[in-house]
Structure formats: structure tokens, C-alpha cells
Amino acid sequence: AAGTGSFIEEQAIKLNVPLSEYSKIAYNSTNPIDLGERCTVFIEDTIRDAFANGQNLEDILAGICYSIVNNYLNKVVGNNKIGNNIVLQGGVCYNNSLVSAFYAKYGNRIKVSPFFAVSGALGVATIALEETNGTTKFKGFESLSLPLDIKNQIPTSSIANHYKETKKLFLGDYTRKNLDPNKQTIGIPYVLLVHKLFPMFRVYFQTLGYNVLLSPDTHDDIILNAQQHALVETCYPVKLIYGHIAYLVEQNVDYIFLPSMITMKHESSKVEHNYGCVYMQASPQMVYESMNLAQKNIQLLNPLISLDFGEEAIAKALVEVGLKLGHNKPKCALALSKGALSLRKYMMATEKQGKEFLNSIKPAEKVFVIVTRPYGIADDVLNMEIPQILHERGYNVLTLAHIPGHELDLSEEYMNLYWPFGQHIVTGAKLIANHPNLYAIYLTNHGCGPDSMINHLFQEEMGDKPYLSIEVDEHFSKVGIITRIEAFINSVYNQNLVATKNVHEYFNNVVKKQVYVTDKIDKNKPLYIPNFYPYSQIFKRSLDVNIQILEPTSKSSITLGMHKSLSKEYISFVALLGDILKGKQQNDIKQIYIPQTEGSETDGVYPRVISGILGKDTTVVTSTIEHLYRNKNMYIIFNILAGDIILHAPHDKRDTMLTWLLEQDKINIDILKELTAKVKPYLSTNKKTISLIGDPYIVYNPYFINHALLENVSVQYMPLSEYLTFMWSQKAADKHEQQFVHEVEQVISEFLNELGHAVDIDKFKQIGEQYLPMFRGGNAHYRLAKRIMHSNVDAIIDAVCMYENTQSILQLKKIDLDIPYINIEFEGNNNQIAYEKIIQLINYLVIS
């Protein structure tokens, strides 16, 4: 929406500016503000911040125009070549200030069509005239007297009807009417995995003697309530939880039942843990707390389910809910068996119908497959009625659930793809790409971290086969959706693909790609590593490998990374990719090291996605940082700790200390003590101290943490050694691993305590579990603990990426601190808002 005229109209209304006056006011701007190239929601936040900081109206209106131009050029035009004769068309040309913004970019190369408002319609009419040779079947406007309900006259396919039948099977004989007033009511919001597991939940609670009220299909009032109650930006499916729960609250339910899915086992997965996204893990509690439902005497039933441990895990979780409600174990077990049987019957019926249709596909038949998560398919708001739109046009529609994606083993091609839904989507892409009859309509969610990575993997799998990708948010236009679907249908029918084999032969003979990701270093080739000062420089000297360090992140490398972005990737990914692409322009890079995490945020997928972009000429070497302790190499700890100590020195002293360190034979305890002694005199300063925590890709990257901004304060960086030790302590399983991690904690504590930190890993873990039980992703537990257990600092900055899902969850954690705390979000080359927040905090500290 941020690239359309509707966005200008929305902002004009909110700013109380008549459209007829917009250009006149914007022309008075002398310093248009930089609003970036983000989606409408974040640009609106920037506009509010701009007003709060005293920016005038004309500079904001002009900034909106430049934002639209930049967004269009970067996100739509992308790498496509732009010639010297450019025609500008479309209704936005009524806004002269927007036209002027394009002129500012391209000068006289721009020509505005005299028919700009109708050029597209005229072009379509011309094409229609050419393709029909001047003949037409249009019956004239008098035909409007025909019955308006013409869709029943359009031939429909059995699978399109089956799409509707699936919902009937899902709900069975359930009705929201005639609830027993003598029973308590358990409200179940019709969101997320409820779209898959409701048959079991319903029967379980009804057997225990409760009314079960499922919120209705998403409608306008639910959407409105979602927009009013959501306090932070999330993906649309999560935002809708607010609306569905608000509906249930209005119905005076006694309980809200919504489980948190920590892990979900994918049948063929070989990763250690298959994590649900961070929203799947934490959103029920997040919504419950932000809507203050406890004050309304509504209890949340929120079992934490880890399906990595199979069906027993969900059984145990549901039984515990029943016990909490006051029922005995035998009664809960009986209710559970009935619920499980109901779910199994539903799944068997839908699988049977899917198989029957797959076996009936004709050789040249075109079949559209809706690819997204279960709730994205089942909710007509989230699927934007695409199945119905295709059905009305007489086309066959399948969903991802109808093809055998769970049976395909991805472990050799996607070694660390820990999102179960992501695994299912990628397997679906492989099967669709390999079958000549199937064409994907891939629905992604705006603001979804996993989708920003899976987009790349999906594109890689589809190769040259056309597919339609649509990003879902609350701003979509049905007219726009229809236009895109019809264009996609046209492109599909230009494909002369015909099936020559049985459908299952295509599914059973998917070729595995060679993947250039490994955990082994080729010592015969230089190994390039990202530039994270001073850690990269220390490891370059310390390891027995020819290590080359990439140049620091720059505006030009960010631009290179942006050109390869597909949606709302975190800036950590964009910067890392851009640094590598810039390095490849200057050097023949044959292998690059990119660390990965175990999940569930996006950084664990960076190596695989970047490998797909780089291609076969460059091997990506990776290691999982949660597992580094397993080699029990204390020398690695010494190197990381040395970097931590150097970062405690003033910015202008660090190079000197790094040079001294690199002159030593080998880093050991004695060398670390000498280095600490060199740094400590600088800690006794009159400057106020800021604790800097957050995303390591941001915290340790000077492109984002601009030292010039921080020269009037002292900065206490979150120690990388402490951060890693915390992660290892969560992971260590047997007593030998735990003993080694404890020894590491003792070593780092000896030095970090002297530098002003209060290292207490057990306390950190206790705080993390208190606020976010079982949560994994985005180092949230560590960030929460560092926020609460601050020591010897005067303020805290949490520095993260724009769109980071974990940050949305942390923002809602109400934690009272006795010092100032701010979170800053970085994006691309436009970090002015983040810098202004830092300056305001520093000014406050200096004055106080």
C-alpha cells in the first residue's frame, strides 16, 4: 500500500489535509523528511514521531511523496533496467507533488501521459480489440437485466466444492447456538492452529461438561477490534487474535483456551527442534495480558505444547488443563481419547478426498494450489477469498494439505530449516514445481519473519515455473487481488505443460538439489568472514585457517542487499548479504563463514538463504552457535572474551589495545588479565554509562551503532561471551556438558565482573522462564534478564532490526525499571529515527 495513491489519500485524511491542497502545501517544503521505504504502518509511526519532534506539515507531506517514489523503485522496479524515455501514468499523477518527486529522480526523462488516469484501461481495451479481431460477445448494457447471481451458472469443479466441504467436515455438527446456561463456557478463538485442531479441542471440553464457543469466521467487527486492541505491529494472523478474543469477551465466556505451540514435529525433519515461530509460542499470553482479561475475571487456558515429543505432548498438556479445571485424571483421559478420535476422523476424511482428486487430474488440466499455513487457507480473510474467486471462474483449487508434502525428506537440502510450516511450504513448492498440472498461489504474511526467509527458498524451488505470490495484510483490495489472479491465470495458460505420468510418479521422483552449505572448512582456500570488530580480527590471527575479513557494512553494501530482498527481511540479513555481495565484486570468494542459530528467529536460516542467492561458485560454511561448547575448546572462549574486554575501552583506544593483543603469542588467562588492567582505568569516568543489548548483528556492527553519537557517554556492550554462555547453559544436557559450561561461566565472570557486569547465568534463566516460559528465539530470555539485572549503568538501549518479531513480544512485557530504557529499530540506510532516539536519551542523561 505504501506505493499507491490510496496511501496518500489515507495520510491526507489523517493529517486533515484536503487532497486538493496537498501539492500546494508540499511545494512549500524546504527539507522533506526521509520516511524510508517501509510499509504503511511503519511509515505512519515515523510520521507520528516526526510531528512529535517538531517537523512541519509541508516537510512531512513532501517526505511521503519521496517515500512512495523510493518504495516503488526499490520494491517494484528493483533491478530492472530503466530507459531514457519514461512515461508516468496512473491516478497518482493527479498529485503534482508526487510527479515532482519523480522528476527530482529522473528529470526530463519523465513524461506524464496526457491520459494518465485511463492509460491502463485504454491499453487493455486495445489488446482485447487486437485479440478478438474486432468481434465481441458482449451483449450490450441491456444484459444487466440478467439475474445478478450468475455464479451458479458457471461450471464448477468437484475440488472447488470440496474446498467448501472441508469446512463442513471440520465443524461437523457443531453449532454456536443453544449453549447451556448452567454450564461454564470455554471460548476458543478461531485462529492459528485452532483451524487444524478444533475437532479435538471441542470434543475434549464438551466431554468434560463445558459449553464450547468457537468465535465465528473473521468478519468486519473482528477486524476492527483487532486493529483497536493490537498495541504492537505483528503479522495479520496474530493481529486477528485480538479481534477474535474481543468477540468471545463480549459473549461473557468464562475461559479463553488457546495453546502455545513451542515445537511441532515435521515427519521427515532431522533438526534437533522444530520450532513454532515466536508468535506461535508467545502470542496467547501476549494478547491476554495486553487486553487485561484477568481484570475481567476471564481465565486463560494456555498449555505450552512441545510437539517434538509427539502426540503424548499434546495429550499431557490437555490433561493438565483438565486437572487445572478440577477434573480427575481418568475423566480427562476419556475426554482426550474421544477428542483424538474426532480429529483423526476429520483428517482421514480430508486426506481421502484429496487423494481422490489427485488421481482424477486430466493430462492437460491446470490446477491451482493455495500454499500457506493451515490458518491462512481456512480463514477467508487471510486467503482473501482466492479459492472462491477461482471457483467462480471454473478452476480447480487444491490446498497444501491435499498434496503429500509431509512425506518428503528435506534434511539434506535444508539442514537447519526448523519451522515446521516452513518445511511444509518448501516441500509443497518442490512437488508443485515437479508436477506439470500444478501451479502455486503462495500467500505470505506481512510482518512475518519466517516468511521473509521462506520467500527466497520458495522462489529457488519454483525455478522457471510461474507462481503467484501475494502478501496478506489488512490493506488488501479484492479488486487488486482479482486483477493479479486473472493475470496469473493468463500466464499459466501460456504454459504448454502436459502430464504424461501418474500423479504419484511426479511426487515420488523429486530430484534433490546439490546444496553448497557445509560445516567443514576447506583449508586450501581463503575463508571469508563477516566484519564484527574486534572479534573477527582476533579470530583471523588465532585460527589455523587463511581468514579474510569482509569490509565493514556500508551504504553501498546495504543497497546491494536491498536489491536482493523480496519482502520485509530483517536489516541484519540485508547487511550481511550486501557485505558478501560487495566482497564478491572485489574478490574471488570461494567460501564464506556465516554462523547460524538453532531457532526460532530468522538468523538460523541466513546461511541457507544466502547460499541459494550466491549459487554454486561460493560454499557457505556454517556452525550452530548453541552447539559450539560441545568441542570443549576453552581457547575459543578466551578469544571471544578478549573481544569483549576491548569493547569496554573508549572507541579511540580500541585499535591500540587490539594491536597489543595481536602481538602476543597466544591468548591465555594471563594475557586477558593484562588486557583487563589496560582497560580498567578508562572505566572510572565521569560519563554516564549506557548498557547496549539486542541483536548481535546490530550491536556489534558500527554501521548501526554510530560511535560519533555515543562519544558523550560510556557504552557497556552486552558481552558476547556472556551471551553465548547463556545459550549454552540452556542447551547443555548431560552432566559433563553442564560442568564445562559452568567452568566457562566461572572464567568469564572473573573478568566481566571486574568490568561492571553482574554475571549470573542461573538467574538469567530464571528471569527468562518467568516472563516467557519455554520461549526460544531472538535471544529474548537473555535480553529480558539483562534489562532487569542491569548493573553500574544509567540507561539501557535494546538495539534490534525493524520488523523483528521477538521485539514485538518484548515490547508488551511490562517491566518497571529504575533507569531509562528505549528500544531502537534499524532499517536500511534510513536510521534517522533510531539516531534521534539515541540523541534524546544521551541529552537526558547529560542534563540529569
Write structural notes for this entry.
Helices cover 47% and strands 10% of the residues. With 848 residues, it is α/β, with parallel strands linked by helices. The strands form seven sheets. The protein has a four-stranded parallel sheet with strand order 4-3-5-7, sandwiched between helices. Residues 145-160 have low confidence and may be disordered.
Strand order of the largest sheet: 4-3-5-7
Low-confidence stretches: 145-160
Helical content (DSSP H or I, runs of 4+): 40-55%
Structural class, by secondary structure, is alpha/beta
The residue-averaged pLDDT reads 87
Head-to-tail CA distance between termini: 43 Å
Helices, by number, come to: 33
The proportion of residues in beta strands is: 5-15%
Biggest β-sheet description: 4 strands, parallel
Number of strands: 21
What value does the Rg take, in angstroms?
29 Å
Q: Per the principal axes of the C-alpha atoms, what is the gross shape?
A: globular
How do you describe this structure in short?
Helix content is 47%, strand content 10%.
